[in-house]
Amino acid sequence: MPAPFEWAFTTRGSAVEGWDPRAKLVSMALVMVALLVHHNLVLKSVQVVLLVLVWVGARLGWRSLGFAVLAVSPLLATTAISAFLILVPGFEPAVRAATLDLQIVGVVLVLTLLVRTTAPTALAEGLERLLAPLGRRGLPVHEAVLMFSIALRFVPLLLEEFQAVTRAQLVRGGGGRPGPWARALALPALIVPLFVLSIVRAQALAEAMESRGYRGAEGRSPLPPRRWSGPDVTVLTVAILQLLGAVGLAFVPGPGAR
Amino acid sequence: MIRVLQAGFAYPGAARQALSGIDLTVGDGESLALLGANGSGKSTLCRLLNGLEVADSGLVEVDDLDLAEPANRLAVRQRLQVVFQNPENQAVGLTVGEDLAFGLINFGVPRSEFASRIEGVLASLRWSVPLDRPVHRLSGGEKQKLALAAVLILEPRHLVLDEPTSFLDPRSRREFLASLHAARSHRPFSLIHITHRLEDVLDVDRWVVFAGGRLVGDRSPAEWIESGELTQWGLELPYGVRLEQALLHRGLRDALWS
Amino acid sequence: MVVELCTASYAYSGAKTRQVEEVSFRLEAGTATALVGPSGAGKSTLLQGLQGFLRPVAGQLLLGRRDPWRRGGRGLFGSIGTLLQDPGHQLFAPTVKLDVAFGLRRLHLGAAESARKVTEALGRVGLDPEVHGERSPWELSGGEKRRAALAGLLVTAPEVLLLDEPTAGLDAPSRRALFGDLERLVGQGTTVLWTSHDLEDVWSHAPRVLVLDQGRLVADGPPTEVLADDELAGRLGWDALPVLAYARRWGVAPHADPEVLADRVEEAWRARTL
């Protein structure tokens, strides 16, 4: 049975899991910007190597690293090819292609690292804490974060239901004559039941939540205080340094710059 | 104590009344079954009792709190909880532990109490399950047990079950009912069990039968069985009970004790 | 249509173990059979195999004595209709009539012919085309939704009807109505196979019971034999059926109607006390 979120988060006892999710979220954002803002091949290589080190530290394994890269290999290939096509083949385009590809790998690694080392609940909590100041100004931060966790909870179920609905309609002749028109016309038969099921489910869930005392952010037990610890500060510092370095280099031409 | 006096309700836009002239009293610690064919109004009464709907006429009171007052709703929900029919649409948390904590958070219970309350409710249901188990990995029966635990953790004085076993296979149904009995012997609460499966409620104090939105009888199970009037309301007694009645009618009382 | 499995095995692609292992049975046209077994025994997989979503990894499936997986045989699966446990997965059109008509798309009939078939199908399941036809499928009660979904299948006149837990959540009158529908269909020559957890229903309404346990067929026969098998019941964790427990207690033949059983007990009792 399909369950893509099975590989999303698993406990491996690595230090990375213990880092404060706020630190991870903020660092991730900083590192992503740091990856994208400059064109220096050397710095990009350093950044990617750093990420690989974190990956290893998180005990995620070389195989899954390979899979992560493999997953974006079509994108890597087309980027490299277009870099070569735009410029006359030579040293410069090769550097350019490598820079762009490293950038892509870097982004994939950052995102995967975040998702695979942080429990969805912790992520949601981290987001809620980070955005709390906005919440005090009246924005529905808590509600938005709760919606996100509930959506996550139902994804595996939705996938199963989509399969069930598809089979049900195929058996009723939903497949019909092959051809794009017939397929398009049959689409409502697949989408509508899922929509209706989801709406019915949302209503039932809302009632169950209300019944258990939910009334938005009001009256909820406050989140326990969480202090920033040594590792969190380290991670943040490294990320900030990367960003500063990247921004600095963005204004300094060097190998790989255009 | 739950008091319903001449309550009436119609869903907006409906052709007929879902409930009319309902008089019902439930003392603390009593157990009732609400019986009747689909559409007879039993689920509607459940929704009136926990404030999801408000009666159009008459009085609905839980522990002297009038449900017509919106301000009383939260207080009622502290005392009266509901387990709904569909095991898929009640759990909010991603894991067992999270879902159990949901209600506690809603009512602002201090987080320091969570661990003991969680442990306590699982013990009262005689259910040992790891708190980090993802909800989508639970079977239907386990999800329904979770729903039961998640409302009992709030220590309500009254529990309403709205057809809790209709989606469960026989084994899960037995387990659920066993958990219910275990919980009730641990900490008595009054019970309103809505069902059309009479075999699940042979041991309650009263059977209250609904038909066409009206309450047509409120007697003990023994009185109902002897009267032979259940079939006219679309209810079928379990085989064993019908057989025993058939034997009694043939004057074979002695055969029953052989 | 005759449905036959010959030591067929099914497995999900990429799975290490087979969900269904060397199952053989034959369903004749105009018969009703119940398929029972614990959760995870392979019932859903078997149904998917019969519908054509899974190809046997061993053995053979024959529909009307032909192998649908050979060249030119895929159309045979079109004669099989399946009613899912949750009619919400099948109903989608704005009105019941339109939903029932969905299955006719493949046949490219004229409007009048389509309308006639829809009305007929609705009638066969006890839904009034005038009363229920123009309503939205989601306004119907649980039992009515199932019947609307059933009408949507019947409209294509399937020769084989598979039903997945058709009585789950239904009250006594709806259940009686459903089995009435099935009896009528069987009388018209449809091959009916339904899965169920409700052994009382199976006892009362299934002339034949197939029992699946961990992918294998462990019993095949009338309910009086299969459901009365204590060893089997113990292994599968079935509650002893009350009807059997009582019949055994008084040493009489069991019967689905308690009045009939009471008569038998009366006879035996009076004979004993003479």
Name its key features:
heterotrimer, B: 258 residues, alpha/beta, six-stranded mixed beta sheet, four-stranded antiparallel beta sheet, C: 274 residues, three-stranded antiparallel beta sheet, 38% helix, 19% strand
Short description, anyone?
Chain A is mainly α and 258 residues long. Helix content of chain A is 74%, strand content 0%.
Structural features, described:
The complex is a heterotrimer of chains A (258), B (258) and C (274). Chain A has 258 residues and is mainly alpha-helical. Chain A has helices at residues 15-18, 21-36, 41-57, 62-71, 73-86, 91-117, 120-130, 132-136, 141-174, 180-211, 230-250. Chain A contains eleven helices and no strands. In chain A, helix 3 (41-57) runs parallel beside helix 6 (91-117) and helix 9 (141-174) crosses helix 10. Chain A starts with 14 loop residues before the first helix and ends in an 8-residue tail after the last helix. Chain B is built from nine helices and ten strands. In chain B, the strands form two sheets. In chain B, strands 6-7-8-3-9-10 form a six-stranded mixed β-sheet, sandwiched between helices. A four-stranded antiparallel β-sheet of chain B has the order 2-1-4-5, covered by helices on one side. Chain C is of the alpha/beta class. Chains in contact: A-B, A-C, B-C. The interface between B and C is medium-sized, with 30 and 33 residues.
Secondary structure topology:
The complex is a heterotrimer of chains A (258), B (258) and C (274).
Chain A: H1 15-18, H2 21-36, H3 41-57, H4 62-71, H5 73-86, H6 91-117, H7 120-130, H8 132-136, H9 141-174, H10 180-211, H11 230-250
Chain B: E1 2-9, E2 19-26, E3 31-35, H1 42-49, E4 57-62, E5 65-66, H2 73-79, E6 80-83, H3 96-106, H4 114-124, H5 140-152, E7 158-162, H6 170-186, E8 190-194, E9 206-211, E10 214-219, H7 221-227, H8 239-249, H9 253-256
Parallel strand pairs in B: 3-8, 3-9, 6-7, 7-8
Antiparallel strand pairs in B: 1-2, 1-4, 4-5, 9-10
Chain C: E1 3-10, E2 20-27, E3 32-36, H1 43-51, E4 58-63, E5 80-83, H2 96-101, H3 111-124, H4 129-132, H5 142-154, E6 160-164, H6 172-187, E7 191-195, H7 199-205, E8 208-213, E9 216-221, H8 223-226, H9 230-236, H10 242-250, H11 258-273
Parallel strand pairs in C: 3-7, 3-8, 5-6, 6-7
Antiparallel strand pairs in C: 1-2, 1-4, 8-9
Helix pairs in contact in C: 3-5
